[in-house]
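We both want to read discrete structure tokens more fluently, so let's practise on a single case. Once you have written the record down, we can walk along the chain together.
***
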Amino acid sequence: MEETILSIKNIKKTFGNTTAISDFNLDIKRGEFITILGPSGCGKTTLLRIIAGLETPDSGQIFLDDINISELPPEKRNVNTVFQNFALFPHMNVFENIAYGLKLKKFKKDEIKTLVSDALELVKLTGYENRRITQLSGGQKQRVAIARAIVLKPEVLLLDEPLGALDYKLRLSMQTELKKIQMTLNTTFVYITHDQDEALNLSDRIVLMSNATIEQIATPDEIYKTPKTLFAAKFIGEPNILKGLHIGDNQYDFSVLIQNFNLSENEEVFAVIRPESLKISDDGINATVIDQSVKGGVVITNVILKNGTVLRMHSFDTKPYAVGDNINILCSNKDVHYIVDKSKDI
């Protein structure tokens, strides 16, 4: 069994009348890359600040290696944080920025030189020791911030939307570098983001949050293919979500298919169909093309069924269709995920 390094127990936090975190519980494994994902205001950054010791929870405890660190100040916790705005010292060069924490902890000069050199090599900035921070690109500044955090060899590295200030191509490149660094160090990463693509690409597990609570904890594949709630289904990707119409004898009509469910009549069931699961087939049901576009090599086709249901399809090989064209579409039952969620509606 993999060892738990960080245990978050019953954490609650309010700001006035606003609940930021509501009874949060999570065990994080040693060496795991775990992402806290959710929209702005869901509580993910507050949680990170509580772990770091920058915020005090109303109740609950944080355990690091089975030691209760809830009452310890930030400098006494063996965790470090990489912030979105880098938080680098502009009056210091690259070497001095990375060495700052080591100097505070009274490391010897030779040790500092070796550790900083190793950190620079890891983030591919060897030779940049004497550069001023103002002479660096956004990506280079981010690498310095990461090097400054890892040079102290924390047991847990906290990353608060660290790629948010970078352009799209640089974000993609830094995602690859971050994963390489994490695997090389075998350090536990707790990553905060609202970007679902980052979460799906980087994570061993994703903790999806909404309104101060956990919606689902799962691997990227699980949370994409088998979301537990409507919020989870809608937040990850661009799914087609069909509300089942109860037609008696525990049958629910989704227009695309009719499926039996052992549910009472006052319960509603939803079918989640990913756009890539819809195929064009002579055996399918008739639909009319609304529009078609291409994004990154993916052909996006929106269609409407006779009953007014609009569906989105993703394909790499669909031929061009004009608005108003009739096509037949099909979805295999194995590619449909069903959700019973009485708390929300679509």
In short: The mean pLDDT is 88.
